[in-house]
Predict the 3D structure of the following.
Amino acid sequence: MRRKLICLLALLCGALVAYEAYAVGIAYKKLDHQFLPYASVTPRDLGLNEKRQEILIKIQDPAFFDHTGIEWPSPLTTTTITQSLVKRLFFDKFTKGFKKIEQTLIARFVVNPNISKETQLVAFMSTAYLGEKDGKQLFGFDQGAHSWFNKSLSELNDDEYLSLVAMLPGPNRLRPNTAASRERVRRIKQVLNGECIYEHVSQIFLDQCSESNRRP
């Protein structure tokens, strides 16, 4: 009985490996097509200056330029910018579980080795979900800026821009001009001012940004 159980588990593991390898292969074939719209665009073309680019990365994925598309020690429970892109560009319907494994493998072995960090950032800015307003789902920072503030991205003041960045972990819960949004913007400012330690994407909700965790 025990031997049969071991054989069954081995068979299931083999089937999972084969399926995930197939999924990664399919993603690789789609890679150029999925990123073609963003290949010749820069963050500045979208209205993001260098300072605001740094803010986005620092808050959304502090190790973005250093990691390999995923971040250890918890690649299956956290979501980097690269993993977010994979979810948006390679899945029609994303669910937790095996899809998270697939997302992580595609980020690590397909997207990150072949797509520059700048192009990844442009794609993220262009596709990020920024909530729903008047029954319409909003995607991309430019659409978010126009819909929430009636301005282009480059016309936003600092607090308005931070309000968009603040939305990313929970777009509908952290809608601009709400108490939840204002609190998250406050915490973001603590990070930017060096008053709160934030080094890993697992800390993205900034729960650590309290008085007890402020730098001296």
